[in-house]
Queue: 2 jobs
Job 1
Amino acid sequence: MKKNNRASLSGAQKFSLVRREAIYTGLALIGLIIFWLVAGFGTASVDVKIFHLPLWAVLGTVGVWIVAILISALLSQKLFTDMDLEGDDDGK
């Protein structure tokens, strides 16, 4: 998580950061759903087995979890900002 000087963020800046993070999280969800559709349904005709399971079953379950973990790690390390959401440092 990026660290910001909490005293330097106004309420509007905090709202902007939270809104940006929410938008990117929603886009990540859409990307994960697209991956699930492609991995699960897109590989249904492929005759590949992993541990005696069809490829679509492995990619549509375990693969989705792995991609979700990677997306979450990427978002938390590169995008999310650690900030105090309490109103104490807003000048109120």
Job 2
Amino acid sequence: MYHAHIYYNTENKEQAQQIHQQILHEELPIDRLGFMHDEPMGPHPQGMFQIQFIDCYLMNIMEWLERNRINHSVLIHPMSDDLVADHRDEAIWLGEALELDFSQLKK
């Protein structure tokens, strides 16, 4: 299982909402589309929403996000028992890599 976090701020929130809606309408092979969170939460330094999908769709989802992310940073990571390693060592970034607060995660 994987998560992709699509980050946004007040200046580009409208674009992020468009991406969120586009994910809904294009019926991507995802298990879950999360709500938009305008404030930092957990290790994430700014607003974001996430999608969850199974491993076999990683390349499809990555390619779609690269084509449609506009200028948003995107973090893609596996989901295992080691959240720090997932977000730090196994992370794939599209666009600018943001600094995460790993003190919010448990190993």
